[in-house]
Amino acid sequence: MILSDSASNQSSSGRSHRSRLQNTTPANQDSAVSRREFLGMTAASLLMAGTLSGAAKPNSKNEIPYRTLGRTGEKVSLIGLGGYHIGSQSDPEESIRIIRTGIDQGINFLDNCWDYNGGESEIRMGKALRDGYRQKAFLMTKIDGRNKAAAAAQLNESLRRLQTDRIDLLQFHEVIRDSDPDHIFAEGGGMEAVREAQQAGKVRFIGFTGHKSPEIHLKMLATASKHGFRFDAVQMPLNVMDAHFNSFEKQVLPVLTKDGIGVLGMKSMGDKVILGSKAVTPVECLHYAMNLPTSVVITGCDSLPILQQALKAALSFHPMDSPQVAALLAKTAEAAEAGRFELYKTTHQFDGTVANPQWLG
Q1: In terms of Cα–Cα distance, which of 254, 248, 252, 285 is closest to 270?
Q2: Is pLDDT of 50 > 70?
Q3: Which H/E stretch holds residue 208?
Q4: Which whole-number Å values give the CA distances from 118 to 50, 112, 128, 158, 210, in the listed order?
Q5: pLDDT exceeds cutoff 90 at 61
Q6: Which segment of 37-41, 67-71, 278-282, 318-322 scores lowest on mean pLDDT?
Q7: Residues 187, 191, 193, CA angle at the centre, nearest 5°?
Q8: How many CB atoms lie within 10 A of CB 68?
Q9: What is the DSSP letter of 205?
């Protein structure tokens, strides 16, 4: 039986906004690709996939592949456990079982966010990381605060909920507005709080996430460079639909790999929306994202069967050859038009900070 994925990195309020929302993507963005662009895209995917040979090393105990997180040198599991659905699971004890089972079977990358499920996702993960599990995990969480005070307060709350004195990777969440980079790097901005926390030993590495536009990701990278700063990791949608429409894979991924920045792939199934196209299976979605030079593919698991599906996908992954990549891109080309199955790009449905601007500070 094929199981659907529960992956998404949306906030609890973002999930509540599933009404019919107008498309917010500019009309002049590409909604389809020409044959020449398609072939070029396939070649680019294969070229990047070629970097994977020898990059994923199996864990000696259970064979889950590990990759290096950019220039940090940290080894992270090919599959990362998404934080949102950990808190939306109806049974808190089941959430703890999912986290611990994942770690026991080789997953060491844990995703979370200050705003997921009103903090419940972090609270449950903190409980799961007791009894020696914290030492086995590479722990990532995110904050929304754009100013120094909000960022510092959210970070400290996350540390308390997660029952830890350090975050391995802290990321600015939902960089989805053209103004976000300037606000974060401004005098008195959120970056000041995060850098101070890093110097104090509360944070090891720094990154950012976003799902709206590759251009905003590029602006965030350029703004960082202007301030003499380079991110350790960047999180973004990487999937079989993104490859065709307003693509993070085409526009941002080459920049990250060139600069040695860790690549965190998310929304491999677009919170199951991509599966609604009937064009691809969950495992095909995961394998496509794994075939890119991703350090880790983060996927939401709200049950043990979904977790086992993700683990099996990691265990069965082999770098795809040219016909396999071309076949997946061909199967998804028509469905990908105008971002019909990438609602995080084309609507506010996944934008928790739009529904809750107070989180920004």
Answers
A1: 285
A2: no
A3: strand 203-209
A4: 41, 12, 18, 11, 20
A5: no
A6: 37-41
A7: 95
A8: 16
A9: E
Q: How many CA atoms lie within 13 A of 300 on its CB side?
A: 27
Judge contact between 146 and 187, C-beta under 8 A.
no
Closest CA to 134 of 89, 92, 99: 99
Q: List Cβ neighbours of 79 (8 Å cut-off, separation of 6 or more).
A: 64, 107, 109, 286, 296, 297, 299, 310, 311, 313, 314
CA separation for the pair 301, 105 (Å, rounded): 14
Of all residues in the chain, the percent with pLDDT exceeding 90 is 80
pLDDT band at 63 (very low <50, low <70, confident <90, very high): confident
Reduce the secondary structure of 28-91 to three states and give it as a string. Answer: CCCCCCCHHHHHHHHHHHHHHHHHHCCCCEECCCCCCEEEECHHHCCEEECEEECCHHHHHCCC
Please, what is the end-to-end C-alpha distance for the chain in angstroms? 45
Q: State the catalytic residues.
A: 116
Side chain identity, residue 183 = H
